[in-house]
Amino acid sequence: MTSLPDRGVSSSSSDPLCEGNIAPCSSSSEQKEDCSLKQSKTSILSCVFNSPFNIFEAHQDSSANKSPKSSSGSYDWSRVLRRIVCSGSMWRFLGTSKVLTSSDVWFLGKCYKLSSEESSSDSDSESGHATFLEDFSSRIWITYRRGFDAISDSKYTSDVNWGCMVRSSQMLVAQALIFHHLGRSWRRPLEKPYNPEYIGILHMFGDSEACAFSIHNLLQAGNSYGLAAGSWVGPYAMCRAWQTLVRTNREQHEVVDGNESFPMALYVVSGDEDGERGGAPVVCIDVAAQLCCDFNKGQSTWSPILLLVPLVLGLDKINPRYIPLLKETFTFPQSLGILGGKPGTSTYIAGVQDDRALYLDPHEVQMAVDIAADNIEADTSSYHCSTVRDLALDLIDPSLAIGFYCRDKDDFDDFCSRATELVDKANGAPLFTVVQSVQPSKQMYNQDDVLGISGDGNINVEDLDASGETGEEEWQIL
Amino acid sequence: MEERRKEKGKEGRRGKATGHSVDKFSRSNLPEMEKRKLHLPPGTALFVFVNNTLPQTAQLMGSVYESYKDEGDGFLYLCYSSEKTFG
Q1: Where's the active site on this chain (chain A)?
Q2: Strand A347-353, strand A356-360: pairing
Q3: Given an 8 Å threshold on Cβ–Cβ distance, is B33 in contact with A276?
Q4: Angle at Cα A419 formed by Cα A390 and Cα A433, nearest 5°?
Q5: How far apart (Å, rounded) are the C-alpha atoms in residues A395 and A403?
Q6: Alpha carbon distance A398, A415 (integer Å)
Q7: Is residue A273 within 8 Å of B42, Cβ to Cβ?
Q8: What is the mean pLDDT of residues A443-456?
Q9: Average pLDDT rounded to a whole number, residues A260-286
Q10: Average pLDDT over residues A65-75
Q11: Residue ranges of the domains in chain B?
Q12: If you compute the radius of gyration of chain B from its CA atoms, what whole number of angstroms results?
């Protein structure tokens, strides 16, 4: 990958790259599909299309009308496309593009019904689009940044070209915090002052060691899982890094001021550290209860809980049988979306429509900004994006992680029953399963009666002559 | 007939049983794999595939074998994979 200049970044430290823009990516995403692997990960195409198509004219910050600096002469073809976009009805264009069709959108547990393009003048249809876009652009968008304090001992003052998994995970956890403090129906206010909770959340994701969930602190916490400045990372390691960071913060805060920095239990649904069975992960209700109990410092009451489920859903590419199951997780009210994307390119997938994932892209380069914890007048525009990007679900890399937020015991029970229903639909290959308690591993040796197992009559008992071997010798690596 | 119970992996990380495993473990859950034996450092992900899907952890080896043994050679093929990275 070549390192491109930070195209699309203005000198402003709070460049509203996507503010108020919508879905010129309808064509950019198609382009990206074809050449994304050859392109820099800084998504230059998407920057090219970040000219201000104002859908929410009335809602605009004036800053959104600045011309982007990315429309350089070398991308003249894009102006042609832009003219096409501008000349027609935006809704019609969207309706015939693949970014948003007339099909229902499932977005973080909420369904948006979008009517067909014929009814572009229909107020219901428009409100379907508009309410979806308002929801989409209220999500916290966290991207590559440059110009922050160097990460620990490294010389890195930017995470361009390596930080996308960290950024994607920050987006998912930020949504969990938004849901927790402000609820699923919260929308970014059009006017300042903002909610103190909202500003407080953004502050935690600032790019410095002083911010609880900064890239600096995540890399440090994830050190033993291979996280390091400049290195790529997978979703499993990322989830473990969060687990470590949350635990560390909790211990520190208990010592310092007794406050919780992370207001919920965190459950990384995976096996043990060293020995794992490696099959579909198992959500264990007793483990979740114990984590809630620990969070409440021993009181046996339930607490809010964040579940992260890291998965690998195929060897070279995603096994297509998992795609309907992945889609269905977005219908759960507890849905926090997915960390993942095309191979090498992690995004925050927050919704689905038809066979396409709708995501927030961290591969834009913005200047680091410092949002003080109490500055309710802060400019937060660089933390929101109205550009809906999409990719075909069957192109996503098999390595990903799914997130869920359960507010209380009832919500957790609802999650468990939905997850169990999904197991039943999985035809023997679920994404993950739910059990009440951890079963001690069954390691029964069949010294006598292998034929007792139903359906295994073909197994030859006569070969059972190695009962003296230890389990370790039974499983050799070729 | 011994060979049919071998387990074999691909995708860089291969696993095999020294015969008899499915008989001996047919009432067992999926075997617990030690990462060091797969040359995976601690802290890395481990996922096991049978027929390109993640087997359910509670499934018994006997039923996994019966469902997914290779019809041609009688092997049960297991594949081990860690995770990809992103940047």
Answers
A1: 164, 361, 363
A2: antiparallel
A3: yes
A4: 110
A5: 20
A6: 23
A7: yes
A8: 38
A9: 83
A10: 38
A11: 21-84
A12: 13
3-state DSSP call for residue A409?
A: helix
A453 with B33: Cβ contact below 8 A = no
The Cα A57–Cα B37 span in angstroms is 60
pLDDT at A203 over 90: yes
Q: With CB atoms and an 8 Å threshold, state whether B9 touches A478.
A: yes
Active site residues of A: 164, 361, 363
Of A224, A450, A475, the CB nearest to B23: A450
Tokens of A335: 């849905």
Tokens of A451: 């034929």
**B61 interfaces chain A, CB cutoff of 8 Å:** no
Rounded average pLDDT over A268-288: 82
Q: Which residue has the higher pLDDT, A171 or A19?
A: A171
Report residue A448's pLDDT band, with 50, 70 and 90 as the boundaries: very low
**Chain B residues with beta carbon closer than 8 angstroms to that of A280:** 54-57
Return the residue matching tokens 């802060």.
Answer: A378
**pLDDT of res. A238:** 97
pTM for this model (two decimals): 0.76
Distance separating alpha carbons of residues A362 and B86, to the nearest angstrom: 12
Mean pLDDT for B24-32 is: 64
Asked whether A323 and A355 are in contact (CB, 8 A), the reply is: yes
Using a CB-CB cut-off of 8 Å, the residues of chain B touching A345 are 86
Q: pLDDT-derived band of residue A257, with 50, 70 and 90 as boundaries?
A: low
* Interacting residues of A344 by C-beta distance below 8 A, sequence separation 6+: A37, A41, A232, A397, B84, B85, B86, B87
CB B37 within 8 A of CB B5: no
User: Which of B54, B32, B43 shows the shortest CA–CA distance to A223?
Assistant: B43
What one-letter code names the amino acid at A28? S
Ranges of each domain in chain A: 105-115+124-435
- Compute chain A's Rg from CA coordinates: 24
Query: By mean pLDDT, which of A131-145, A269-283, A291-305, A379-393 is the weakest?
Result: A269-283
Of the pLDDT bands very low, low, confident and very high (cuts 50, 70, 90), residue A223 is: very high
What pLDDT shows up at residue B17? Answer: 46
Q: Which fold has domain B21-84?
A: Ubiquitin-like (UB roll) (3.10.20)
- Mean of per-residue pLDDT scores for chain B: 70
Chain A residue closest to B47 (CA)? Answer: A278
Q: Which of B33, B38, B52 sits opposite A277 (nearest CB)?
A: B33
Nearest to A14 by CA among A382, A352, A274, A303: A382
Say whether residue B56 is in contact with chain A using an 8 A CB cutoff: yes
User: Who among B24, B33, B83 is closest to A236 (CB)?
Assistant: B83
Strand A110-112, strand A105-107: pairing: antiparallel
Contacts of A197 (CB under 8 A, 6+ apart): A181, A182
